[in-house]
Structure formats: structure tokens, C-alpha cells
Design goal:
The chain is an all-beta fold. 2% of the residues lie in helices and 58% in strands. It contains one helix and 22 strands. The strands form two sheets. It has a 20-stranded parallel sheet that branches. Strands 21-22 form a two-stranded antiparallel sheet. The N and C termini lie far apart (39 Å).
Length: 192
């Protein structure tokens, strides 16, 4: 289904099919979807968001977000709890806690008052500030990696070397991220 007009309601939004929203979606309640949801605008929900498939939007502000598959947010994410079953590609992350089933790729900043965990890798093109635990087999960050506790096999802060990360563009989102002109898969084995 495709919705052309902005959605603004005080009730729960329940979606039982793959949906595309061409404008903003706002509710003072919760959003629950069984399949994929794409929003060419922002999502704002006072309640929780639960997505059975992939979620893609420009900006997201909610209490808690849970998606069973991948999450792509081109701009900013603000939430208390973030749980993603697959990969998460986000502009800026501001959350209390994050649990990522695969890799977390952030174009700018990760700022968490709790813990940030990814099963494969955390790649950040600017800075990471985590008041709790930063946990992933591999963490690659451009500038600063400030975490109260780190549980990583490898942490690379590129500002401490001559290397630079090339941030993802609209053409490369969803593809392997390149670092120093080499595919990230050549640098780290995500399957192990």
C-alpha cells in the first residue's frame, strides 16, 4: 500500500502489509507493522515501534524501536531502546541502549547513555560516546571512541593514524562500506 498524505493520529497505527508513506508519520501512540515499512519523511511516535521486516525513513523519534530485519535512517535516530535483527545504517544515533543483530554503520555520531552492542561490527564515521558498554568484535571509528567499558576484539581509531573513512553516500547505502579504498570485508571477516 502507498500513502501519499502525512499521517497524524492519536491512535495506534497497525500495518498488515508492506507499506510506503510518501510523507511524515506521527502518532501519540505506537506503530506496529508485520512487513517492510518505508517512509519518505520522518516518523514520530510517543509509544513503541515494532516492525516485522525492514524499516527505512529519514528521521525517527520514538520510545523504543524493534525491527526484525534491517534499519536504515538517513538522518537522526532518537529513542530509549533500539533493537535491530539485521544491519542498522543511521545518520546519527542518540539512544539509551542499542542491540544490533549484525553491524551498525553510523555516518556521524553515536551518543548513548547506556550500552551499544553489535554482533559483527560497529563502524562510525565521526565519534562514539557511550556511558555504558561498547561491545562488538570489531569497532572502527574516525575520530573519538569514548566508552566506559569496551568489549571488543579490535578497536581502530583512524584519527590516531593517517587513514580516513569514506562515509556512505546515497549510492552506497546498503552496500559494503569502503575504508581507505578497500572493501570492509577485506579488512574484517564479518562471518567469524
Amino acid at each position: 500500500a502507498v500513502f501519499m498524505d502525512p499521517i497524524e493520529t492519536t491512535e495506534d497505527i497497525l500495518i498488515n502489509s508492506t507499506c510506503v508513506f510518501m510523507a511524515d508519520v506521527r502518532t501519540s501512540a505506537s506503530i506496529k507493522a508485520t512487513y517492510d515499512v518505508t517512509v519518505y519523511g520522518s516518523i514520530a511516535a510517543i509509544g513503541n515501534i515494532s516492525i516485522g521486516g525492514n524499516l527505512q525513513c529519514n528521521k525517527l523519534d520514538c520510545a523504543d524501536i524493534h525491527t526484525n530485519r534491517n534499519l536504515t535512517i538517513t538522518s537522526e535516530l532518537k529513542c530509549a531502546s533500539l533493537v535491530v535483527g539485521g544491519n542498522a545504517t543511521i545518520g546519527d544515533v542518540y539512544c539509551e541502549s542499542a542491540e544490533i543483530g549484525k553491524s551498525l554503520i553510523v555516518k556521524h555520531t553515536i551518543d548513548s547513555s547506556g550500552s551499544v552492542r553489535a554482533q559483527r561490527a560497529i563502524i562510525c564515521f565521526d565519534s562514539i560516546v557511550v556511558d555504558g558498554c561498547l561491545q562488538a568484535p570489531c569497532v572502527i571509528v574516525q575520530n573519538e571512541c569514548d566508552a566506559k567499558e569496551r568489549q571488543t576484539n579490535h578497536t581502530v581509531v583512524l584519527s590516531e593514524s593517517d587513514e580516513q573513512l569514506a562515509p556512505p553516500t546515497n549510492d552506497t547505502v546498503g552496500q559494503a562500506v569502503s575504508i581507505v579504498q578497500a572493501p570492509i570485508d577485506d579488512i574484517y571477516d564479518f562471518e567469524s
